[in-house]
């Protein structure tokens, strides 16, 4: 049994709500201190200016983090058309005056071109490493960053709202308001379902380039990562209270939650022992499977090929 304030021995996943301004690594550190478990890791970062779902793996569940990283994600994005920034969001200031924005119809017209499998160049202000250096560090230092395009998949891209907003440049800084001397920009709300590795900032940048007016990301919320949704997310203060009062396990999702999309099988007692010792099993089914014992306890994952199941990950060792 776990001590008060500590995660259960097998760990699990927690669906954390990340607020604006917090870095993903900062959230991990705070959770690690609350649950008193060293093995805590995020399953895909979320920019400090974005908010929403940040799944965390705790304890032994970190062994399954890669499955969360590969899960599709859903975002609600506010994109500002008519304004460009070096970082493709409001972290940096525009390098030129705002340009006349399009109407909502022009945005809707280009969306199909960015749906499906697309080639996307990551933002220069990203955490990717180029020759051992984070891209954003080189970009902030004024050095050119050469990031190769990557193939990503945008499953759905829809315009859900659109409205005008007043903008102007004062001393190189972007301001928002209305009245004489203010230019119009189009603020469009987009709902995006996409694969892992898709940069929404880059999508905003490329939409603006396709229309010819430029665009930058104004705001971003991640509302879903696989089975983890915004409406069911846990705020940090809730986690800290649960850890302090000894009911942390009520907030944890079982480790096998993230592999429920895989076919499952129940092993006999004999096969359970063989698998738990890392030995292959004679089974005709192919592909990756999640395995359980007769009591429903998660045993691990096996890869089926050529009439044989080979252990890929043994979760539960024999007692």
Cα separation of the termini: 16 Å
Mean pLDDT score: 90
Q: What is the H/E string?
A: EHEEHEHEEEHEEEHEEHEHEEEE
Structural class: alpha+beta
Rg result: 23 Å
Shape: elongated
Descriptors for this entry?
alpha+beta; 319 residues; 7 helices; 10-stranded mixed sheet; 5-stranded mixed sheet; 36% strand; single chain
Characterization of the model:
- By secondary structure, the chain is an alpha+beta fold.
- The chain has seven helices and 17 strands.
- Strands 1, 2, 3, 4, 5, 8, 9, 10, 11 and 12 form a ten-stranded mixed beta sheet that branches.
- Strand 15 and strand 16 (about 300-305) form a beta hairpin.
- Helix 1 packs parallel to helix 6 (about 235-245).
- The chain is elongated and about 80 Å long.
- The two termini are about 15 Å apart.
- The mean pLDDT is about 90.
Brief digest:
The chain is α+β, with helices and mostly antiparallel strands and 319 residues long.
């Amino acid at each position: 049994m776990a001590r008060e304030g500590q995660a259960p021995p097998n760990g699990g996943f927690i669906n954390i709500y990340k607020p604006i301004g917090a870095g993903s690594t900062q959230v991990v550190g705070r959770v690690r201190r609350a649950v008193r478990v060293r093995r805590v890791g995020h399953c895909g970062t979320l920019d400090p200016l974005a908010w929403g779902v940040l799944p965390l793996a705790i304890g032994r569940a970190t062994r399954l983090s890669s499955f969360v990283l590969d899960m599709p994600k859903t975002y609600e994005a506010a994109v500002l058309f008519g304004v460009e920034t070096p970082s493709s969001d409001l972290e940096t200031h525009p390098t030129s005056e705002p340009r006349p924005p399009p109407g909502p119809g022009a945005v809707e017209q280009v969306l199909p071109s960015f749906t499906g499998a697309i080639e996307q160049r990551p933002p220069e202000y990203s955490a990717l490493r180029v020759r051992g250096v984070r891209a954003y560090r080189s970009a902030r230092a004024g050095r050119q960053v050469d990031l190769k395009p990557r193939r990503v998949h945008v499953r759905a891209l829809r315009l859900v709202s659109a409205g005008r907003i007043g903008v102007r440049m004062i001393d190189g800084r972007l301001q928002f308001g209305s009245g004489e001397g203010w230019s119009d920009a189009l603020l469009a709300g987009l709902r995006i379902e996409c694969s892992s590795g898709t940069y929404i900032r880059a999508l905003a940048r490329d939409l603006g380039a396709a229309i010819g007016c430029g665009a930058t990301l104004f705001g971003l919320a991640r509302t879903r990562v696989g089975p983890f949704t915004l409406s069911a997310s846990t705020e940090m203060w809730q986690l800290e209270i649960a850890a302090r009062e000894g009911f942390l396990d009520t907030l944890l999702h079982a480790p096998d939650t993230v592999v429920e999309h895989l076919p499952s099988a129940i092993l006999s007692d004999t096969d359970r022992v063989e698998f738990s010792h890392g030995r292959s099993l004679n089974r005709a089914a192919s592909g990756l499977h999640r395995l359980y014992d007769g009591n429903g306890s998660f045993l691990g994952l096996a890869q089926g090929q050529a009439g044989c199941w080979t252990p890929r990950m043994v979760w539960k060792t024999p007692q």
